[in-house]
Specification:
The protein is an alpha+beta fold and 186 residues long. The chain contains four helices and ten strands. The protein has a ten-stranded antiparallel β-sheet. A hairpin with a 2-residue loop joins strand 3 and strand 4.
Length: 186
């Protein structure tokens, strides 16, 4: 799905610039405490960030495209806007050692040990998807041909809200797109 897979600013984009992050390797054993922490995310959520967060997405896109050459800005802006809508709903389903994460019913399921799985976006693009708990954060990495998208989910202390920190990196974006969205539990 283009909205999750990241950015395609041109057809020949090099992905994989999240090297400096401790990316999932698929050899991690997920212990019971980690599974319990992941289970706290289980539920249905609706967007609660309002216009301020919607404007934040637009501002993040503008910051990123400002670093592009003037000839690419319009195309880059359009593609970034298309691939970064503010989703109305978020669903996280944790079952055993796997998690399924869905934005507006477009979902990806993967084990919580960080093992990447091959999947297709809603637009038919090939992506690798991995999920992993990192402390109290649930992370989702979508590695696509056009770029990488890292979604970092943080649950509020009372469990009623999830904040999603989004970072999109592409070889054609000198400045990553970074923003936050807030969802409240239904």
């Amino acid at each position: 799905m283009a909205t999750i897979t990241g950015v395609v600013v041109a057809s020949d984009v090099r992905a994989g610039q999240l090297d400096d992050l401790d990316l999932p390797v698929g050899t991690v054993v997920v212990d019971q405490d980690t599974l319990d922490q992941a289970g706290a995310f289980d539920g249905e959520f609706v967007f609660a960030g309002g216009q301020k967060e919607r404007d934040g997405v637009d501002a993040a896109i503008e910051t990123s495209v400002a670093a592009l050459s003037p000839m690419l800005r319009k195309l880059g802006r359009k593609r970034l806007q298309e691939s970064n809508p503010v989703f109305a709903s978020l669903s996280i389903s944790v079952d055993g050692d796997s998690a399924e994460i869905a934005f507006d019913n477009d979902s990806h399921e993967a084990k919580l040990d960080g093992t990447p799985i091959k999947a297709k976006s809603k637009d038919g693009e090939k992506v690798k998807v991995s999920h992993r708990m990192r402390g109290t954060k649930l992370t989702q990495l979508l590695d696509g041909v056009g770029g990488d998208r890292l979604n970092e989910f943080r649950l509020s202390d009372d469990g009623k809200r999830v904040t999603v920190k989004v970072k999109i990196i592409s070889g054609h974006l000198p400045v990553p797109v970074e923003y936050r969205l807030t969802y409240k539990r239904k």
